[in-house]
């Protein structure tokens, strides 16, 4: 669908629409096909890159790519060590997986959306969102996965009785009159972690993609008139500047999601 055939609102709405497939009768349930395909493909690419480096790793002077991967692994491991000084056999690989996967998904935001639309329309897809983290299903799926791990380690470390006791007696004390306020406060705190974790990543990436669209719309009024040439030049310059700045957002949001996930799981090993 050519962007010049669209109004600004329909242009933005079109690029923010997922390719969905209904499941079952009545189409009550549906799957965002583009989100699943992109997230799985990027996950496989991330695993493939690490497998390739591990398979070709040398004990001598490493190549540039091997050095970069080793530096990333060491950076993530040191970050986890600063947060959780205990056994990191599970937490460090999890943190590395989160960081790399979220980074790769965020990185798709640098692809020109009109190029993506042209290719996917040519393949017969009426809509396609290339950035999985602009889909709330993705960010909430990952954040509620972290919630499951929080609950798992809470029960594993504290036991069912210890976790239940903590939910009803912290932070105000064990007086039976305070059980309900304690439980309500702890429940809100527990649920706020995945909700804020998912919303933060989604909000930042969604806003970044929306800004790219607005800058792209500015370029659609480019012409050989003075005003049109100014608009075209402004669109190109601002898009380039935003892309450079957005690289920092892409990395920062992946890092924040990784760190907060690690912090929340580390907190599950502790008591009030």
How would you sum up this structure, described in words?
The chain is mainly alpha-helical. It has one domain. Helices cover 72% and strands 3% of the residues. The chain is built from 8 helices and 2 strands, in the order αββααααααα. The protein has a two-stranded antiparallel ribbon with strand order 1-2. Strand 1 (20-23) and strand 2 form a beta hairpin. The longest helix is centred in the C-terminal third of the chain and has 42 residues, at 226-267. The radius of gyration is 23 Å and the shape is globular.
Report a brief summary of the structure.
This protein is mainly α and 272 residues long.
Keywords:
272 residues, mainly alpha, two-stranded antiparallel ribbon, globular
Task: Detail the topology: elements first, then pairings.
Layout: H1 8-15, E1 20-23, E2 29-32, H2 33-55, H3 64-83, H4 91-107, H5 113-122, H6 136-169, H7 179-219, H8 226-267
Number of strands: 2
Alpha carbon gyration radius? 23 Å
How many helices? The count is 8
Low-confidence stretches: none
Could you estimate the helical fraction of the residues in percent?
Answer: over 70%
- What composes the largest sheet? 2 strands, antiparallel
What is the number of domains?
1
**Percent range for β-strand residues:** under 5%
Briefly note the structural class of the backbone.
mainly alpha
Helix and strand run? HEEHHHHHHH
> On the 0-100 scale, what is the average pLDDT?
88
N→C terminal distance: 56 Å
**Shape annotation:** globular
Strand order of the largest sheet: 1-2
């Amino acid at each position: 669908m050519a962007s010049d055939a669209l109004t600004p609102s329909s242009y933005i709405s079109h690029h923010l629409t997922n390719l969905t497939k209904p499941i079952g009768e009545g189409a009550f349930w549906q799957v965002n096909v583009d989100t699943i395909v992109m997230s799985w493909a990027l996950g496989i690419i991330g695993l493939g890159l690490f497998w390739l480096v591990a398979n070709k790793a040398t004990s001598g002077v490493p190549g540039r790519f091997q050095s970069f991967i080793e530096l990333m692994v060491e950076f993530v491991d040191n970050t986890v060590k600063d947060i959780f000084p205990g056994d990191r056999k599970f937490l460090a690989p999890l943190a590395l997986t989160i960081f790399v996967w979220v980074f790769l998904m965020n990185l798709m935001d640098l692809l020109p959306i009109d190029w993506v639309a042209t290719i996917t329309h040519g393949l017969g897809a009426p809509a396609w969102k290339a950035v999985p983290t602009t889909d709330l299903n993705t960010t909430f799926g990952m954040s509620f996965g972290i919630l499951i791990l929080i609950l798992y380690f809470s029960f594993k470390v504290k036991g069912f009785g210890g976790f239940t006791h903590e939910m009803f007696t912290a932070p105000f004390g064990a007086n039976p009159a305070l059980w309900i306020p304690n439980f309500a406060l702890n429940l809100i705190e527990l649920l706020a972690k995945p909700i804020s974790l998912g919303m933060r990543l989604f909000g930042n990436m969604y806003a970044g993609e929306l800004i790219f669209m607005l800058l792209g719309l500015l370029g659609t009024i480019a012409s050989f008139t003075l005003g049109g040439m100014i608009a075209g030049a402004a669109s190109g310059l601002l898009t380039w500047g935003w892309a450079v700045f957005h690289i920092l957002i892409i990395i920062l949001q992946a890092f924040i999601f990784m760190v907060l996930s690690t912090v929340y799981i580390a907190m599950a090993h502790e008591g009030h």
